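=== RUN LOG ===
request id: a7f3
mode: sequence -> structure
chains: 1
length: 387
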Amino acid sequence: MASGSESKSEVNSSASFSSNSDEVDDIFITCCAPNGCTVPSPVNLHQCVKLTSSSDQCTCSLFMHSECFDQFEESVLQYLKLSGRARSWSEKQRRQNIWTKRGYDLAFKACLCKCKKGYLKKDLDQVEEFDPAPVTKSKKKKRKSNEKPLLILSTSPTNRNRTISGCSTGSEGGGISKLSSPKEAVFSFSRRSDYHAFLVALPKQKLNPYHIKMEDETYGGNYDENRNFVLSNLTSHKVHTVHCLLCLRSLPVYDRYPLIDGTFFLSVHKSHKSSIEIQHNGYNRYLCAVCVGCLHGYSAKVHCKFCKEEWQGDLFQLGTLYSFDIFAANPCCAKRTQCNTCSANVLKAGVEASFSWFAQQLQCEDCGSLDYHLIKPHLSVFKINTD
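=== RESULT ===
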C-alpha cells in the first residue's frame, strides 16, 4: 500500500493533468501495476493505460505503463482461462471479453489493486486525450497500441459483419432474415440497415465494440449461445419485437449482433406484460429489455426512490444478453438490500462483488429466508421520468 504522502501526490497529479494538459510532461505519476512496476521511469501520460477502481477509497494513481499493463492483462487472462464457463472459451473470446462484463465478472478477483481497497479494470472510456497533438494533412496520427477500435459509422447499408453503419429504433431495416442456428426455425427477424439509435444516444467515445456487441462468439458467425438463446425463445413465442421496460417503446429484434437497440436481461420478476417467460438452466425466468436511450439517460431518467441516486444503465454492453437482472446490480442504498420477508439488511457491509452476484439467492441471517432478496420489481425501487 502506498504511503499517505505518495498517495496524495498521485491524486494531485491526476487532477493537474485534467486541468492543464499543456503541462503534462512535468507531472510525476507512479505506475499502479499490482505486481510491481517493471519500467524504471514515471508514467508518461502520452503512452499509458488508464484504469478504474471499484473502490472510492483507492489510493493508487490508476495509470499504468503500457508494458506493465500488458503483463497485468496476461495474468488476468491466465486466471480467466481457469474460471467457470471461460474454460471453454477460445483465446480470442477471452481476449475480447476480459474487460467487458461477461469476462470481468469471472476474472475480477485477479485484478486486486495494490492498495487492497478495490479491483482494477481497464477504463473502456479512455480516448485520445493523452495526445494533444492535432492531426495535420502532412502528418498522419499514429494509432496507439492500447487504443480502442472505432466503428465505421455511416447512414447507408454496408457489410455488417465487420462494420457498423447506423439503427432506427422503430425501423425494420434492410429486409427480413431467418434465424440461423443448428436447428433452423421457420421465423423471421429484422436485418439492420442503420444504427441511428446508437448515434443519437451515445457519446463518440462509446461508439466501439466494447460498448456495443458486434460479432458472434464464433468464427463463422452461425452459432452463438446468447444470440441463439434469445432468437430461439422469441421464435417459440412468435415474437419479433419487444418493449423497453422503462419507456415501453417497441424495439425490433435483429438477426445478428447487436440484437436490439438496447440490451436484454433475465429476471425472476415479470415486470411488464411484454416480458417473456422462458426456461434458463432449469429455472423459470423472464426475458426483458431496456432501450439504449433509457440505459444512457436519453429517453428516461431513472432514480432510486429512497436515496435519489441515478441508476447507471450505461455500465452495460448494448445489443447482447445478460443472464442476471441488471436492476439488481450495484445496489445504491440499504433499502434495496432488505430481506423480502423481515426487511432486515441481507447484505454485509463492505461487500464488493461482480454484478451477477447480487442477482443470486441469498439467505437472510435474521429470519433464515432464502430468496432473491436483492432483486426487486423495478417500479418498487425506481422512479422513472420520461418527460
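=== NOTES ===
Residues 1-27, 127-141, 143-186 have pLDDT under 50 and may be disordered.
Helices lie at 4-19, 66-81, 91-97, 101-107, 196-201, 225-236, 292-295, 378-381.
=== END ===
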